[in-house]
Input
Amino acid sequence: MRSFKIETPDYSLQPAIQAKIDNLNKPKGSLGRLEELAMQICLIQQTLSPSLEHPCHLLLGGDHGIEREGVSVSPREVTWQQMINFTRGGGGVNMFCRQHGFKLRIVDVGVDYDLSNIPGIINRKIARGTKNFLYEPAMTEEEFNRAIQVGVDLADACINEGCKVVSIGEMGIANTSPSSIWMSLFGDIPLKDCIGAGAGLNNDGIRHKYEVLSKALSRYHQLFPHPSSISPLMYFGGFEMIAAIGAMLRAAECHLVILVDGFIMTACALAAIQLHPASQNYMIFTHCGDESGHRMMLDIVDAKPLLSLGLRLGEGTGALCAYPIIDSAVRMINEMNNFDNAQITKYF
Output
């Protein structure tokens, strides 16, 4: 796997940042989470005057072999159909990117359909979907490394445009299944507590999903009694998920603000943190979704999500919805007057 050098932000600037926040013409601490966000972003960028220039959104598509086991209510063709829909501007992700000024990159990392001639889709296909992890690893180590590099390259493309904040979304039918397994493995949580309805399974569907994933997890433990750090990622992950991990790690390496979306992207963030704990410093967990277990997954890394709107669409839509709050935090520290300039008595 490609090596990453991810540093914990230098906290020597923290007292100066806190002094600037406290001297804004408001009661101390009265802007709550906005003050915490401003502190985090200042530390990420190592400045008292942060910015969110050229925001970019990566929409990564991939199919999953485990879908063949009926673990999702949606058929796999929905993946490629939605990918084409995104190129026409018709998805939720398109609307929110337009609303908040994000440049959208739509990337085929492993969709089980030929999208190579579709304008607007970046072709970085590794294979037409992963293998079925009920019977074998989802991908080889070579495919894993290629997927990581796809994420790195996409992050670099954003960075080269001057991007300072990146959000990542996914399109891949059945990708709640590997996410649930990663949550169980990395959080030491019983698998049954990690499985939810996905795109809309009923109780029988959830029970079937649990049975399938339990068998897959048992087989994995038999094959990997002493797993490496990347074994669970290769065995269960989707190409779009591994690319997301690569993009997160590269973004952290380059001191970008990373907006983490819902259940699937939180699982990818959790995997990135397992590989490089310092990467969490660069992540803002934007919302708690409606998928069962998302709250517990956020608790694993002691994350405080900004929103709780019952979202479970994916695509990165929750991260994009939360962006105005993050923008407000940056505007607060840059644009609010201070007590001295406003000639207001500082009363604390």
The CA atoms of residues 215 and 264 lie 21 Å apart.
